[in-house]
Hints:
alpha+beta; five-stranded mixed sheet; transferase; globular; single chain
Amino acid sequence: MKPEFENIDLIKTGKRFEIEVNGYAAFIDYREMGHQIALVHTEADPELAGTGAAAAAVVEKTLHYIEDNGKKLLPFCPYVFAYIKKNPDWKRIVDERFDGYDKL
Protein backbone atom coordinates (compact mmCIF):
# COMPACT_ATOMS: atom_id res chain seq x y z
CA MET A 1 0.00 0.00 0.00
CA LYS A 2 1.28 3.45 -0.88
CA PRO A 3 2.27 5.45 2.21
CA GLU A 4 -0.32 8.17 1.51
CA PHE A 5 -3.10 5.61 2.09
CA GLU A 6 -1.77 4.07 5.31
CA ASN A 7 -3.40 6.53 7.73
CA ILE A 8 -6.78 6.61 5.99
CA ASP A 9 -9.51 4.95 8.03
CA LEU A 10 -11.58 2.09 6.67
CA ILE A 11 -15.30 2.79 7.03
CA LYS A 12 -17.71 -0.15 7.27
CA THR A 13 -21.32 0.54 6.45
CA GLY A 14 -24.18 -1.94 6.15
CA LYS A 15 -23.07 -2.98 2.68
CA ARG A 16 -19.65 -1.44 1.97
CA PHE A 17 -16.09 -1.13 3.11
CA GLU A 18 -14.91 2.31 2.02
CA ILE A 19 -12.01 4.72 2.18
CA GLU A 20 -12.11 8.40 1.30
CA VAL A 21 -9.22 10.05 -0.52
CA ASN A 22 -9.35 13.80 -1.14
CA GLY A 23 -13.14 13.72 -1.00
CA TYR A 24 -13.46 10.74 -3.36
CA ALA A 25 -14.29 7.15 -2.47
CA ALA A 26 -12.92 3.69 -3.17
CA PHE A 27 -15.14 0.90 -1.91
CA ILE A 28 -15.96 -2.80 -1.84
CA ASP A 29 -19.53 -4.06 -1.70
CA TYR A 30 -19.86 -7.02 0.64
CA ARG A 31 -22.26 -9.47 2.23
CA GLU A 32 -21.66 -10.85 5.71
CA MET A 33 -22.97 -14.30 6.54
CA GLY A 34 -22.02 -15.49 10.00
CA HIS A 35 -18.28 -16.14 10.01
CA GLN A 36 -17.88 -15.36 6.29
CA ILE A 37 -17.59 -12.09 4.41
CA ALA A 38 -18.19 -12.18 0.66
CA LEU A 39 -16.53 -9.36 -1.27
CA VAL A 40 -18.52 -8.88 -4.45
CA HIS A 41 -17.52 -5.65 -6.19
CA THR A 42 -14.67 -3.13 -5.92
CA GLU A 43 -14.92 0.36 -7.37
CA ALA A 44 -13.27 3.76 -7.08
CA ASP A 45 -14.53 7.18 -8.11
CA PRO A 46 -13.18 8.12 -11.56
CA GLU A 47 -11.21 10.96 -9.98
CA LEU A 48 -9.02 8.33 -8.29
CA ALA A 49 -8.20 6.62 -11.59
CA GLY A 50 -4.53 6.56 -12.32
CA THR A 51 -3.53 6.53 -8.66
CA GLY A 52 -3.32 2.78 -9.09
CA ALA A 53 -3.54 2.39 -5.36
CA ALA A 54 -6.89 3.52 -4.02
CA ALA A 55 -8.59 0.24 -4.93
CA ALA A 56 -5.60 -1.77 -3.68
CA ALA A 57 -5.62 0.21 -0.43
CA VAL A 58 -9.31 -0.46 0.25
CA VAL A 59 -8.78 -4.15 -0.52
CA GLU A 60 -5.78 -4.44 1.79
CA LYS A 61 -7.51 -2.58 4.61
CA THR A 62 -10.60 -4.78 4.17
CA LEU A 63 -8.52 -7.97 4.26
CA HIS A 64 -6.95 -6.78 7.53
CA TYR A 65 -10.43 -6.11 8.91
CA ILE A 66 -11.59 -9.62 7.97
CA GLU A 67 -8.53 -11.23 9.54
CA ASP A 68 -8.62 -9.06 12.68
CA ASN A 69 -12.26 -10.03 13.21
CA GLY A 70 -11.72 -13.78 12.79
CA LYS A 71 -13.84 -14.00 9.64
CA LYS A 72 -13.28 -16.05 6.48
CA LEU A 73 -13.19 -14.45 3.04
CA LEU A 74 -15.18 -15.37 -0.05
CA PRO A 75 -13.43 -13.38 -2.86
CA PHE A 76 -16.16 -13.23 -5.52
CA CYS A 77 -14.95 -9.85 -6.78
CA PRO A 78 -12.48 -10.43 -9.66
CA TYR A 79 -10.28 -7.57 -8.44
CA VAL A 80 -10.05 -9.03 -4.93
CA PHE A 81 -9.45 -12.52 -6.36
CA ALA A 82 -6.59 -11.17 -8.52
CA TYR A 83 -5.17 -9.23 -5.56
CA ILE A 84 -5.00 -12.41 -3.46
CA LYS A 85 -3.51 -14.36 -6.35
CA LYS A 86 -0.80 -11.68 -6.58
CA ASN A 87 -0.35 -11.63 -2.77
CA PRO A 88 -0.74 -15.34 -1.88
CA ASP A 89 -0.06 -14.85 1.82
CA TRP A 90 -3.65 -13.51 2.03
CA LYS A 91 -4.95 -16.94 1.01
CA ARG A 92 -4.75 -17.70 4.74
CA ILE A 93 -8.09 -15.91 5.30
CA VAL A 94 -9.95 -17.39 2.30
CA ASP A 95 -12.55 -19.99 3.26
CA GLU A 96 -11.21 -23.33 2.03
CA ARG A 97 -14.72 -24.18 0.80
CA PHE A 98 -14.67 -21.24 -1.64
CA ASP A 99 -15.24 -22.61 -5.16
CA GLY A 100 -12.11 -20.99 -6.65
CA TYR A 101 -9.82 -21.72 -3.67
CA ASP A 102 -7.57 -24.06 -5.66
CA LYS A 103 -7.04 -21.36 -8.30
CA LEU A 104 -5.56 -18.87 -5.85
